[in-house]
Amino acid sequence: MRFRGRSFIAFALTPEPPIANWLAELDNWRRDSPGFFAGRPIVLDLSAVTLSGHAIAHLVHELAARDIGIMGLEGVEASQLEPGLPPLLKGGRSATADESEAPVRRRPALAEVPRQEPTSLLLDDPVRSGQSVIFLGGDVTVMGSIGSGAEVVAGGSIHVYGAIRGRAMAGANGNPRARIFCRRAEPELLAIDGYYRTSEDIDSALLGRPIQARLEGDDMKITALD
Amino acid sequence: MAKVLVVTSGKGGVGKTTTTATLGAALAQRGQRVVLVDFDVGLRNLDLVLGAERRVVFDFINVIQGVAKLSQAVIRDKRVDTLALLPASQTRDKDALTEEGVARVIGDLRRMCDWVICDSPAGIERGAILAMRHADAAIIVTNPEISSVRDSDRIIGLLDAKTVKAEKGERIEKYLLIARYDAARASRGEMLNVQDILEILSIPLLGIIPESDEILRASNLGCPVTLSDPTSITARAYSDAARRLNGEEVEMLVPSDKKGLMGKLFGRRAA
């Protein structure tokens, strides 16, 4: 028997009082974007409201009636929950899931190959100003540069064989072991697991040089590679 | 079938319109049939740079709306008979350009000539996106300054995402044209040099146009510099770029700040 970890990006719904208005707003939203919630993992974040156990059960029921299945609850005490409700989750992190401006060309899927989520992303083209590449599944390798005003967000490490002139955010899923490497550092921002340095906080002697950035505890260490 | 080029930059005032007119003239002088299309609806300039402003009767928008036929709106140049212009409307705005209308007109122009050169408006909004939409190749005009280079980087990203070619999974050809290059200032580090720009943008270089008075004079005369002053350095630079577009191998001359004997003797001419 084997147990394996699996991570998903869940959408967190955060109801605000009064609940009736919030539900009405949700209905408006569903009318504009039907099917948005279908098949998506949804977490109900109750930190913004104070509800009794009965009210929580009622809210979950109301959402289920709208085809929004709740996989877990957040922001409440376990003692408040009635039996039969979705489990209480802890340690969730927020993640942004903006649509990138399609710098990643899609390849036609091969029907015979069993579907497997890729664990790394390789970009042959530079990441241009204004583009945003978000890959939470693992490492990102960029053969060119990350331009000024561009950003790369990776669940794992970020390897750049050109310059970083924009923003590089590694370990975005909460991975403090992620690192950032590049051949030429002129970044606007480097971040690992939420800890960040802007260009002003980076030793100017390192600018323009090949560097590595990693976390030591709460501190980001940036060192030259040559 | 013609090749469709877009001349674009993101930033304004870098020399898109001058480049469209001069490269178009240079190609036409080599016997190629060229139609220039002004996409800067509401702020048209290409007619002035070509000296055709008093000959505009119908425009691009009239053709899109079916008021005029393409053959009625296209203006033939009086100096080079293989050069023609489809002017923009000055009285309308960019909303008058429709996706289908632009597709139809570009499709018709493709059958008429060897090159369709689209002069993009500045910015990254609707007008600029429609100008690049049907291009096979793009000329990105950049000045040697960081703001212009970063805007060009942004435009290259859009070319790879928003053109018909990119949406079909094909690659749009991209060429860099560095305009208003001042070798003396670049060597003093007051401007980015050619290497810096190529390193940031990493696309092939089509040409380097030096900063010059001739080009300003040519624009004000309404005559592209390759016609008005064909032996000047600027005209040479544009002619060489046109030959490279045509697939010829031409050696790239990077303007240097080394002055010749005459330059030294008559040194401090007002820049």
Global outline of chain B? globular
Poorly predicted spans of chain B? 260-271
Contiguous runs where pLDDT drops below 50 for at least 5 residues of chain A:
96-111
Number of beta strands of chain B: 8
Number of domains of chain A: 2
CATH architecture of chain B: 3-Layer(aba) Sandwich
Helix/sheet category of chain B: alpha/beta
Walk me through what this model shows.
The complex is a heterodimer of chains A (226) and B (271). With 226 residues, chain A is an alpha/beta fold. Chain A is 12% helix and 29% strand. Chain A has helices at 19-32, 53-65; strands at 11-13, 42-45, 70-74, 120-123, 132-135, 139-142, 151-154, 158-164, 167-170, 180-185, 189-192, 195-198, 211-216, 219-224. Chain A is elongated and about 60 Å long. Chain A starts with 10 loop residues before the first strand and ends with a strand. Chain B has 14 helices and 8 strands. Chain B has helices at residues 16-29, 46-49, 60-64, 70-73, 99-110, 126-133, 146-162, 164-167, 183-187, 194-201, 213-221, 225-228, 233-245, 261-265; strands at residues 3-8, 34-38, 75-76, 83-86, 115-119, 137-142, 173-181, 205-210. An 8-stranded mixed β-sheet of chain B has the order 3-4-2-5-1-6-7-8, with helices on both faces. In chain B, a hairpin with a 6-residue loop joins strand 3 (75-76) and strand 4 (83-86). In chain B, helix 1 packs across helix 13. Chain B is globular and about 55 Å long. The chains are: A alpha/beta (226), B alpha/beta (271). The interface between A and B is medium-sized, with 20 and 14 residues.
